Structures are given as C-alpha cells and as structure tokens.
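Thread: Modeling a multi-component assembly for a lab meeting

Hi all, long-time lurker, first post. My supervisor asked me to bring a structural picture of a complex we are working on to next week's group meeting, and I have zero experience with this. I have the sequence lines for every component (1197 residues in total). Could someone generate the structure of the whole assembly? Inputs are pasted exactly as I received them:
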Amino acid sequence: MKKTFLAVVVILTGLAAQAQVRFMPLSQGPGDPKHYSKKPDFAVLEAKLPLTPKERLGLTREALMKMDQEQLDQLYGRLQSGPIPVGDYKGTVLIKNETIVETEQKLLKSLFEKSIWGVFGKLALAGICMSRDRMECLSEWLWYGKRFYAVNEFGELQLRNAVSPRVRTEYLLKKAGLEKMIEPLSRAPVQKFNGSDMLMMFPAHVYCGLSLVDTRHESIIIDYAYGDDFKPYIPEIDGIVGREGKWIRDEIRMIRPGLYLGRAYMDRIFLLNFVLENKEVAKTNTEVSAWKNKCWTGDSWQ
Amino acid sequence: MKRVSWLHKGSGSRHFAVVALAVLAVALVVPACLSTNNRSQPENAKRTPSSELEGVYDKFSEKGYEEATHRQMQEGRTLSREQIVNEMAGREIWYKSAPNGRFHTYVFGQRVNAPIDWYRVLRTDQRWQRFNIWGVMNDPDCCTPGRDCDQKGAKFKGRSVTLQDTYGLDYCPGDEELLGYVGAEDSDYRKVDPACSNPAVKAADILDKNPRENACELAFGTSTGAVGFRKFPNPRFNAARWKKMNEAELAKKGQRWDGTSWDGLTLREVEGSVEPPFRVAISCASCHVSFDPSRPPRDLNHPEWNNLSGTVGNQYIQISEILGSGTRPDSLEQQLFIPMGRAGATDTSAVPNDTVGNPGTINAVINIPQRPQFTDKVSRWFHVPSCDPKKGDCQEVNYKTGQKKYWQWDTKDMKVFHILKGGEDSVGADLAVQRVYVNIGMCAEQCWMNHHMDLRALNPHDRGFGQTPFNIAQCRRDCAPWRANEDRVTDIVQFLLSARPTDLKQGLKNTSKISADSPEELDAKFQDFLEGRYGAGSVARGRDIFAKNCASCHSSQNQNKADLTPTAEDFTSVDFAKEVTLPSGEVIRADWMGNEKSTSASEIGTYRCRAHHTNHMKGHLWEQFASNSYWNKPATSRDPKGKPIAGGPGYYRNISLINVWAFAPFLHNNAVGPEVCGRPEGAGLEVHSNTYEGEQIDPKTKRTCDMKFDASIEGRLKVYEASMDELLTEESKRKKKITRADVPIRLPLGMSLKSLGQPARKFYLEFPAGTPIATIGNLDLKGLVADIMGSLKYIDNEAEYNKYWNEQAGVGGAEMAAAVKGTLALFKNIKDVQAINGVITELQASIRENSNERLKTYMKYYSNCLASYENVGHNIGVNLPQQDKNALKAFLATF
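Re: Modeling a multi-component assembly
Sure thing. I ran the full set together rather than chain by chain. Output:
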C-alpha cells in the first residue's frame, strides 16, 4: 500500500513538474489565417508569456518532436543562449518548415522517389519511420549529433558532426549517383561518439552571434563557413557545407542545461529545427538560479 | 585638453574660477570680435561669460558655445541660459551619441550580409586623404601614430603612441582609457564612457525637471578620426586569434601581415567567429557634419572645428560606399547598396529594405523655426503627467532613481513638420529625430531587426516575409539607449532649431574676397560681385523671375498654407529677404524659401523611385512615425499592374532653397548637375561610380567624374552654376544618367552539383554588367513568388486561373498567366538532377542575351519602380532666355 502510495506521489509530482509550455495564438482578422503579420512579435510574447523554470524543466526531446513550426518558433523566441556546450550532444532533426515540407512533397516528389527516397520507401525505412517525416528519419539515420570541443589556445571553439559510417556505403552512394564521394569519404576521421564509431565531419566555428530569426538575444552560432580553419578538413566533403558550398549556419539556444533547440540555415534560408541533448549534463544542472548565458542577452552594450 | 571648471554658486574656488573665466573670456570675446563669422553682432549680442560656460571644456565645445551665443538679436535681448545649455547639450549628443556599435559590427555582417570594412575606411595611414576617398570630415583632435601625435602632444601611457596600440586607426582624445578595455571581457566600458560625465549633457540634465535615463546610455565612445564615426572597445576581442587569422588569411594570398591592418578580416568576408578590436558606430554627425560653406578650410583633409558645421549636411560623403565597403564587387548586396547613391546621397531604406532603390540627399538643416508646419491627424505616444498603466493606452516607465514617467497613446490634430523627401515623418520633430537614431542602429537588435523583411523568406507564412511596425512602447521598455535619447531629444531638437544660414555674402567676406566695414557696404559689394558674374541688373531681374516661376513652391510666404492644395498666388510684391523676430529675441530670415507642400512625383517629373518609399505606410516598419493624414493622401500614380499607389507614397515636398548656392548638385538624388568626386591619389582608391550613360562600365571611365570636390567659395559656385545650367535645360537635352552594374552581378543559388566529389563551389545566376540596378533592386520578388504559388491551386481550371491573374496582376493579368504557365511547365519536366542543370543553364543564357520574355514580363509587372534615368524632371524655366537664367542664378545666390 505504502509503495503504491509513494509511486502515485512520484508520478503526480512528475506530471506537475512537466508544466505545459504556453503559446500565444495568432491574431484574428480577415485574410490568410497563417499570414506572417498575424504571428505574435517575440518581444510581446516574451513579456506576456515568459517561459517559467517549470516549463523549461518539463520540456523533453519527445515533446519538441510533437510541436509544429509556430510552436517551435515561439519557444525559441523566449530562450537565450545559455552556456556554450562542451562535449557530445545527441541530435534529432525536426522538419516542420512548411516550405521545406511542401517542396519535398510536391515539387521534387518525382525526383526524390527515383533516388534515395525510393530505396528507403521500399526497404527498411518504411518499417523504421512509421510516423516520422521521411527526411527527418533519414537525417537521424545518418546524423547522430554534434561534438563541441573545448576552447583552444587561440580562443577558438570547434564543433564536428557525428555522421553514421553508413553514409559511406558504396551501394547507397551509387544509387544516389554520388560515386565521386566514395574516395573522399574514405578519408573522413573516425572517432567514438556515444560509444559508437562515427565519422566526425563538417567542422565548424562556434561563437556568440546574431540570431537570424530573433535578434533580441544572441544565439550560439555553429558556422561552417570557415570550417577549413580546423584540421583535418576534407574539401570534397566538409566543403559542401562551407562558404563555397551550401554555407550552413546553425544557431542554438538553451532550453535547460543539456537540452538545446537549434535552427539550421542554408545560405541564410531557414531549413529546419533540431534538438541537441546530453542527458548527463541535464542530470547535474537542475538548479535554475545557476543557469548562465554566455552570449549577449539584449543588455544594451555588451 | 585643459578642462575649464565651471562656476558653482557658493563654491570655495570662486576667486580662482573668476580669474580663469576672465582669461577665457578674453580668449573667446576677442577672437569673436575679430572673427569672420556669418552673423551680425550688435553690441547687445555679445555675452559676458558666466554660468553659460558650463559645458565648455575643449575646442569642440568652445565652438559650440560660440555657435550658440553669436546670433543676431533684437536690441536689448539675449538668449536665455536654458536655451544655450540645451543647444550645447543637443550638439554634443548630435556629434557623438552612437549607441549602435553592435549594429555596425554584427548586424551588417551577419544579418544584412554586407560587412563593413572599417579599416579600409578609417585606416590612419590614409588620413591625409581620407576626405578625398570617402568624403568624411577628419576629426581635428585626432592624429596618426608615428606621424603627428607627438607634435600634437598626444601621448599614450607617457610614451609615443604606436600603430599597434591603435590597431591601425587614428589616436583620439579618450583613447588612453578606451584602449585598456579592448579584449577585457569582464569589464564594462559603459561605466566610463565619456557620455557619463559630459559637462554639457550634465548641465542640461540638471535643468530638466523630468527624470532622464542614465547619460552613459547615450554611448559616445571616442572618435575614430572621422567626425561622427565613433568607436567602442570590443570586450570579445582576442589578440591571439586576431593575429592567427590575419597571418593565415594573408598567407593564402602570399602576403605577410604587417601587425596592424585588418586585411585578414576583409578577406574573410561574411562570418562572425573573429571579433575586431573595436565596434565602430556612427552618430548623426557622420552624415550631417560638413564644411561650413562660409568658412572653407585651407586643407580639406585637415579642417579645424571652426571650418565645420554640424547641420549643413555632408554633400561629399560616400556613405553608401562606406557601408558597402566590405562586400564583394560582384555581390548582389554591393550592387544594390553602393551605386544607389552619389556623393552626398544614400538609400536610407537599404537596410530596412523596401525593395525600392531610392537614394536621397542629406538635407541642410537651416532656419527650422520658419519651416512651415501642417495640422495633421496624429496617433502617437504623448508624455503626460500621469495615466493609469492598467489601461492599454498608458505606459509607465520606472527609472532606477525611483522616478516615473508616463506616456499616453492618443489621436489628435497636431501641428507637425513633414520631414524626409516625401514628408513621411509626420508625428512631430522629436519622433522624427529618434527614428533616425533607430535607422542608424540604436536599439537595432532589441527593437528593430525583428520587424524587418527578410529577403530570403519567400513564404508569406514565415516570420520576416514582410515588415511589421516598429513598436515604440516596446523599445521604450526594453532598450535603455532609446530612453536616454528620448529623454534628451528636446535638447537635440533645440540644437537643430539653432542652425542658421551660411550666406554667400558672408563667405566672401570671411575669405577676404570682399572687404566691408558695415553691413550696408557688404550688401553693396555683394551685389557688385553678383552682377559682375551674372550680368548687370541680374539680381533684380532674377527676383522677378523667381517670383513668377518659382515662389509658388519655393517661398513660405504663401497665403494658402494647406498641404495638397496648389499655391496660385501673386508673389510680385513679396519681400523674400524680410526678417522676423523669434520669441527668443533672435532675428532671422522670415522666408524659408520653400512651402513644404506635397507635390506629386508625377507632376514634378523627377526620378520617381524615392517617392515610392513604402516604409511609412500602415502595417509597415515606420507606421508609428507617420500621421493618419499622411496615409490618407490621395493616390497620384499607378503601379505597373495599373493599381493606384495609395497610403502615402507618391509625393515630394517643396524644399527650401536657402543657401542653394552651396549645396549643388540638385534634386533629391544629387543627379542634376556635374558628377563630383574626390580623385584620391593611388590606384583603386576612387569609389565614385560614374552614372553617365555609356560610361558606367568601361574601366577607363567608370570611376571618373566632372569635378573634383572643392569646398572653396569658387569651387561651390562652379558646381552651383553647372547645376543651374542643367536644371534650366529641358530634360531630353540633359546628358542621361542611370546607375548600372559595372561588373556582372552574381546571385548565389547554392552549391554547384557538378562540384560534387571536388572542393565545393557555388553556383551563381549572373546578370551581365550594364544591367540597370533598379531592375533588380526594385523587383518585388516576394510578391511575384507569392502570386505564382497562389496560382497553383487554379492551374487545372483555366477560367479560375485567368480570373486569379487578372485580380493579382491587373492590366498584366493575361501576360502573367501565360508566362507563369510556361515557367511551371519547365518544372513539371524535371525528372532528375541533370534536368535542373539544364533549366538553369538555359535561364542563364537567356538572361545574358536579354532574350527571356517570361523574365521580362515578371520584371515589368512586379517592379516597385520602373523609372530609369535619374536626372529627369523639374522642367521649369527651361525656356527662359539665357540672360534670365543667369539672372535667376544671381538672385538664388543671395539666399
């Protein structure tokens, strides 16, 4: 009886701790209900519905996966940078961006079905990704997360992405018409990431910088433009996301220590969100008053 | 600089202070008597030094005191102490307040994609010709390490200052302290910023009964060596990283880093992982300060404070080139930013982009007390003694001192100036001033950038697809510099109200071209000078021609004062030189030489794009700075789709012609008149872009101009006369000017798939050299994409599809329907990557050959402004005989 009672208390406490994040509805009025002009301004949103510590402590990777783009944006707009992470963070891709989803589904449908998508649609992916967007699923099948390195003697912060060795599979590359990538990929460094061998690719600079969606607070930027500052660097691979390639620039903000919400941009066009999680860090940093921001929070000068 | 302590009542050092003041009084009064300034000085205008010396602490502030006190006064009247103190404080803020270092360091690079190459602009080894290159005013108080700092007595920690100390920039007052904060991440320069303890600002703060935000938030920093360009120490600077980056980037080019330049950062283009040593910022003075036309300097690159005026407007500055200095020549941003502005003109809606290329000049601020105002219906925040903050229309501001201030949102009829080229700023001079501070970056991150359009957001459901209104109450709440500026804006306005003309007559006397012992003798000799130049009887004849042809727009002595109504009056017997006494006792010219009324751009016929500025419309960025009356102006033109352009745009105001002799070339874009440039020594330093048709692309001519910058009296008169000649020539006979891309413009479309397996390279869509900039810069790409996407749901129903296009594209409905169908058909046929390559290759070829009819259709109907030649319009007086044109020149030169 006592054990049952304790179990109930624990469950109820857990539920109470997971306060639902509040969101502001879009404003009403004639015309397109999803028009950008109806979305709440972040400054107004943050003043009216600031995120409480309970809301932040209650958020999980799974909860984020269920949010739509507007909810993710409203969440992001109420966050600040937090400290710059150090260590390995597991990654989860969230593709809720209407433009990307529609582009994939409508305009390039026939193109994708003839290449990678067709393979996965017909084979294992149909079983693995029952309820996920196929691009999200493919991303997680290939991308495992990010490693944040400690600062070096020049004050530089490096990051690399943990990519599944599966990406080197000759069969897949040939199927996708990417035979030219086979040799360069064979040179990519392999290291342990969360216990598994991963290709540590796509080096990037990490720094405090401007958010492309909310300039009121700086975000932690993961910028691939000058990834060639870090060695080893494989131009044929790592350059794809660099300044002469697709120029990927990510930005992240902290939900709570060990959990960050990110946004990925290609040539400054927004692509998708992602989550970075390190459960060990999350476990040891629950004291809200100790949470600090490394980057500028909007105080006028710094 | 030796500080002059001011008098405090009851001070124990009064005796010493009196002696010091007496010495200073002699220093000030004697030169004032002998000075060749531009105001008459009746005996009663001389001020006896007293507590007005609060705020005088160096040569710069001494000049401010002189400007404030040397005015033409009515017999027996003197300006109040309050007015002088407020003007001097306003002047300090105007020249120095620059709370936008982060904006120019981070926002430009990371958000606008146009990093500024500050070192290229401000490098101290080019100080000797910095004006020739960029048109900026060198700060008289700064020096070049290793060249003249020792001479000027400017030491650093007791020794000679080096280029390494200053990171290659000038050494300026206050740097000894500031340099210690570079790279000091845990310290806060804000607490010691010169604004915190500025004597003039302090004196004005004391006078105000209302609470004022901490003066430190005004953010003065120190000078960079160019007036109005300020700098702040970057706490995030890392010297080791800086060295490593510079050495590595230059090594890639086979060069060695010299230890002081920022060249590595230039090569690095757009990314933010390397922090520069300073955050460079700009104050209002950067654009508004220039040579006093009546006191030209001996050396344009080395003026004294006496040669500079804070309000004439810098007609030489290449501000577009400065702000675009770090972009690649072939980038879209460079071609949009830079050529859209001659010397003295810039597109102030380049950053808050309205997808219209609409450069405008920096107006000379003169005799504002006589500037016409209009009664507009205005909705805005008003400062009130109190209100109930629980009500939505009331904002309570709590200061750290415990004091409060209240603001109430209200709608009322109010007398306002119509400020900006189209009269858009129309809710009061205070907010007009504050808006410009925001436009140059104050509170940009906290309050402004989130309301901008993101050029790359193409889905109407995405934040940033279009602009949203700047929220004054939010900014007031969240940004301390906004409050610091707002609490002192009356001082700034007071300073602007004090600006007086710099008459040619006085200039001739100051430069000893005319000598006279009395005002009457001066007038007579001035008339002789003009008639010797423009013909006997020309002044009187010119006056009559002006009254008949020009005064209906360019005199403020019209009887019918309402905006949007024609002034059909007889000005024959109007005295354009009449004077009036202000409530303060000062005597100034009565006529503002412009009635400020709104004239439709179609009527005047000048380059219309500036009149298509949309940022002040309802729902757009500057909604809270435009009056209801502005929005209700009748539409006077139609867009390419045939739809009326309503909601405010479409007009130019009838500007003042006071001191027109000094501020040529003419019109809102400086396009009528000769092309002027600096002609610096050294290859590759000229930044001017030639816009004469046929000369824009050829390397031999694209950087040439008609006349070199010459701020002497004679130099100004030459430009003035050439500009009058062009203005009084019918537009079809003027040498055509149009801004064209001087190199191919390359639009990145992502990574070239052909480079897979090799080092990545970008794929570009290229527009050939010679493309009119307006073609690309004025394209309403978002509207086009949104309408195309909207048409997709009707694609299978011909009738609905055509109906949709008729609604969206008006007179262009049928053409657009056909063009879009063709474009969609291309996409339907894409089955693989090779096909994409094929489409893009074909598109590129057609652009190069200008043969793509679908593209032409899109650009025709989705352009925000189709105007091309930039020096058209204002065909008034073009049929006058030459003698009368000369007479007009003579008369206008008397203003």
